[in-house]
């Protein structure tokens, strides 16, 4: 039997039964394997014990304000697009302890010892848009001038097993944002799932090690052509589009008084759903608590939202007292101001904000409406 060399950047074919071996290898390497699963009629990310835990045979119907899982009994593990949950919850958790202090007998305060090392995690089934979202948050929390120690500690211990998206849902528009349907870089391994197996691209030394001992095959032209055909079809099947993305910063920031802001504000409930499901939103606040005796205090970081009225409250008043001003801040920051701050858009086109908006507000529709109103 010919030994197939595994090198950085090489591609091999992995039969479907080999997926379980890959998960086993990751656990032997010390990673806790996490991936998509069906729970309460939705897709969540949780610990994977076996490939059987994956949502094989499922797909989803998604539209503005609508989400439904559908079981079709197909043979693919990664057809279903993500639900409300994102990988952000593991790198930037909704609640993160920042410190705890206790008063000593002499009246002085002492910081308690920090918790032990974090468990290394393997993210299994990361979509290209989600991978881009992780990279966007890397720019926020690990900048040259400042790095968040809580985020960095988690991020550097993550193995990313990406999966190219061949079956986008009705609210996807990653092709417009340049974040999919194919993962470009930043993964340890990247799979393209075909009917009979996976085309696997090796992106790191850790990825190469994860394939050792598995019965991989040489990837023939058939595998390459099938993968390419699937990706081209996925680009054509996107449920939403956003044309001329490069013009959005100028369009939005130069039209802050457009009538459309008032019209969408009549529907928006400032419920924060869009920011809670967004894989790139990073607003947070620090919350301090103390025990009843006053001898122990703790501080933790919790998710916040620019849609919360209190978020923009400063001494002397509220900077954004209306739903109109808060919605305008969110959309212009995502597609405009973020570019100037971090060099990338704050949106990756995953469509979560559309699917999980109870009012059915669609950002692609709102962007088109502003463009039409101002004649851009």
Description:
Strands 3-2-8-9-10-11-1-12 form an 8-stranded mixed beta sheet, sandwiched between helices. It has 2 domains: 11-236, no CATH class; 245-281 and 307-374, no CATH class. The mean pLDDT is 93. It has 13 helices and 16 strands. The longest helix has 20 residues, at 323-342. With 376 residues, it is an alpha+beta fold. It has helices at residues 18-28, 88-91, 128-141, 149-155, 174-177, 205-211, 221-236, 248-253, 260-265, 273-277, 323-342, 352-355, 363-374; strands at residues 11-15, 32-39, 42-47, 58-63, 66-71, 95-103, 109-111, 121-126, 158-163, 189-193, 197-202, 217-218, 284-290, 296-303, 313-314, 317-318.
Key attributes of the depicted protein:
376 residues; 8-stranded mixed β-sheet; 2 domains; 23% strand; 4-stranded antiparallel β-sheet; single chain; alpha+beta
Count of folded domains:
2
* Main sheet characteristics: 8 strands, mixed
Radius of gyration: 23 Å
Percent helix range: 25-40%
How much of the residues is beta strand, in percent?
15-25%
The ordered string of helix (H) and strand (E) elements is: EHEEEEHEEEHHEHEEHEHHHHEEEEHHH
**What's the total number of strands?**
16
Low-confidence stretches: none
| Amino-to-carboxy terminus distance | 62 Å
Strand line-up across the major sheet: 3-2-8-9-10-11-1-12
């Amino acid at each position: 039997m010919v030994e197939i060399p595994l090198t950085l950047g090489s591609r091999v074919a992995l039969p479907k039964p080999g997926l379980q071996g890959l998960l086993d290898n990751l656990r032997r390497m010390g990673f806790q394997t996490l991936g998509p699963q069906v729970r309460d009629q939705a897709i969540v990310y949780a610990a994977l014990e076996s490939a059987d835990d994956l949502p094989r045979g499922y797909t989803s119907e998604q539209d503005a304000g609508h989400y439904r899982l559908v079981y079709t009994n197909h043979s693919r593990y990664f057809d279903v697009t993500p639900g409300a949950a994102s990988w952000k919850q593991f790198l930037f958790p909704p609640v993160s302890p920042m410190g705890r202090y206790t008063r000593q007998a002499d009246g002085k305060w002492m910081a308690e010892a920090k918790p032990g090392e974090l468990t290394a995690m393997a993210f299994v089934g990361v979509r290209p848009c989600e991978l881009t979202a992780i990279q966007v948050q890397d720019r926020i929390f690990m900048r040259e001038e400042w790095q968040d120690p809580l985020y960095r500690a988690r991020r550097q211990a993550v193995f990313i097993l990406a999966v190219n998206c061949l079956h986008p849902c009705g609210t996807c528009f990653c092709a417009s944002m340049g974040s999919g349907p194919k993962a470009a870089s930043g993964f340890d391994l990247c799979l393209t799932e075909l009917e009979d197996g996976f085309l696997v691209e090796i992106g790191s030394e850790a990825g190469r090690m994860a394939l050792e001992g598995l019965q991989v095959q040489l990837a023939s032209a058939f595998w390459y052509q099938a993968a390419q055909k699937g990706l081209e079809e996925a680009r054509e099947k996107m449920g939403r589009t956003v044309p001329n993305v490069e013009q959005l910063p100028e369009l939005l920031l130069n039209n802050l008084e457009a009538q459309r802001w008032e019209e969408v504000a009549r529907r928006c409930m400032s419920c924060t759903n869009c920011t809670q499901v967004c894989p790139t939103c990073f607003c947070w606040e620090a919350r301090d608590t103390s025990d009843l005796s006053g001898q122990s205090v703790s501080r933790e970081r919790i998710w916040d939202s620019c849609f919360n009225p209190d978020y923009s409250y400063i001494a002397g008043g509220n900077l954004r007292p209306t739903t109109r001003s808060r919605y305008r801040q969110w959309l212009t920051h995502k597609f405009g101001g973020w570019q100037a701050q971090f060099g990338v858009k704050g949106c990756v086109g995953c469509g979560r904000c559309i699917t999980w908006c109870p009012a059915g507000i669609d950002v692609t529709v709102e962007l088109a409406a502003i463009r039409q109103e101002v004649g851009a």
